[in-house]
């Protein structure tokens, strides 16, 4: 995908300053703007310093899910009264949702920001407040106990559109493709190399241990007692089998 009509809120971390003419132009031309929330009152109305002594107000009903200050938001200008501008974040979210449903396709690659992390995955904003779900199995080929092993809140990443449920307005994403293919990750690894890895899961019969060599590359070594999940070990590359995308390893020391 060459053009992303809506980018995530805060992807560009600019402290924007607007003149009254800028805001009037945005009102007349339905332009989307961005600024930082400075304060949220007890009724969950957001206040934004637009610069030039101009205050922006996003009423609670026009704000959406943002409930804390000091965050970037995108908005439309609803009205201007002297040096007070009434804004709508909801209008941007509605427009971005329509864009995502109608313009995005399976396989597209877009910019995203991690907005929340759950045991089963992460929600990643892909533009204008619209988010998609990134299941834990789509984060990496490596096993992980929690998505926080690979992702952090606010992290900027690229994600692939895995599926779009237009009826329920839901988006499913994948990140592991962004970490390189098996062929790309194996290029600088040769048989006989000794490299550092991270212990992941053992096989069901405890006859092997999966070792993560890179964020999207895993090999297997023989089972060894007293090896724990997440432990760093040094392994020797015994054999690379490209046609099966497999790597056989042996633990040198840990």
Kindly describe this structure.
- It is a single chain.
- The chain has 254 residues and is mainly beta.
- The protein folds into three domains: 20-93, OB fold (Dihydrolipoamide Acetyltransferase, E2P); 104-178, OB fold (Dihydrolipoamide Acetyltransferase, E2P) (Beta Barrel), CATH 2.40.50; 182-253, OB fold (Dihydrolipoamide Acetyltransferase, E2P) (Beta Barrel), CATH 2.40.50.
- 13% of the residues lie in helices and 44% in strands.
- It is built from four helices and 15 strands.
- The strands form three sheets. The chain has a five-stranded mixed beta barrel with strand order 1-2-3-5-4. A five-stranded mixed barrel has the order 6-7-8-10-9.
- The protein is elongated, with a radius of gyration of 23 Å.
- The mean pLDDT is 93.
What is the CATH topology classification name of the largest domain? Answer: OB fold (Dihydrolipoamide Acetyltransferase, E2P)
- Main β-sheet: number of strands, strand sense, barrel status? 5 strands, mixed, barrel
By CATH reckoning, the class of the largest domain would read Mainly Beta
CATH architecture of the largest domain: Beta Barrel
Number of strands: 15
State the end-to-end CA separation: 44 Å
User: Which descriptor suits the 3D outline?
Assistant: elongated
What would you give as the CATH superfamily of the largest domain?
A: Nucleic acid-binding proteins
Order of helices and strands: HEEEHEEHEEEEEHEEEEE
The chain-level structural class is mainly beta
Strand content: 35-45%
Radius of gyration: 23 Å
Low-confidence stretches: none
Strand order of the largest sheet: 1-2-3-5-4
Fraction of residues in helix: 10-25%
What is the number of independent domains?
A: 3
- Total number of helices: 4
Overall pLDDT: 93
